[in-house]
Amino acid sequence: MPSLLSADFANLQSSIEQIPDADALHVDVMDNHFVPNLTLGLPVVEAIRKVTDKFLDIHLMIEEPDVWAPGYAEAGAESVSFHLEAAKAPIRLAREIRAKGARVGMAIKPATPIEPYAELLVEIDMLLIMTVEPGFGGQKFLDLTLPKITAARELITKTGLDIWLQVDGGVSAETIERCADAGADAFVAGSAVFGADDPNAMINQLRTTATR
Ligand code: DX5
Ligand code: ZN
């Protein structure tokens, strides 16, 4: 799914219209505290909600997700991901997001292991493994995250639940196949999509590469 981080922030609606084949839109919320970058917040997500029916996948890179995350579910996002490193009470937060009717995503940075948190998997609908340090688009994919993707897929399989495994950061035509082989089944691409001559065609190319 395309990340709007690399879209035209002055023309978000036309950026969304450029990618009719996207199955979802990934929206990166950054607060300049959890990550050294600032993007957009709830009012912009509410505005995006008004101009599209697409699945909205919100990625919160913010401090205090316990306070802010439920509001994004209330705004009509289909999925809300918070960072495990920032959550004070991840189980309570996951349940609160679900209670508001959204899917729950739990995101982890490249250096955060998943094994100590395996018990949390039953509380979530998606695990988001960052494949770059969060904060910016256009960074190089970190190969060192591949074993973690494989390990996470194994832990998810053990739960017997249909938990999506999303990768985010440096995902491109070159790297997406490695992610899929390691066990990822949801793919975020920002610069690869919006930097392409034809963003919509790139989405289809990435999807074909990931699923073959
Ligand atoms: C980075 C964001 C990503 C970003 C990915 O912190 O979470 O969603 O848009 O951008 P690319 O695909 O360019 O690495
Ligand atoms: Zn993201």
TrEMBL record:
GO terms for molecular function: D-ribulose-phosphate 3-epimerase activity; metal ion binding. It catalyses: D-ribulose 5-phosphate = D-xylulose 5-phosphate. CDD domains: RPE. The active site is at D28 (proton acceptor), D168 (proton donor). Its EC number is 5.1.3.1. SUPFAM superfamilies: Ribulose-phoshate binding barrel. Substrate binds at S3, H59, G135, F136, G137, G138, D168, G169, G170, G190, S191. NCBIfam families: PRK05581.1-4, rpe. HAMAP family: RPE (MF_02227). This is Ribulose-phosphate 3-epimerase. It comes from Microlunatus elymi. The lineage of its organism: Bacteria, Bacillati, Actinomycetota, Actinomycetes, Propionibacteriales.
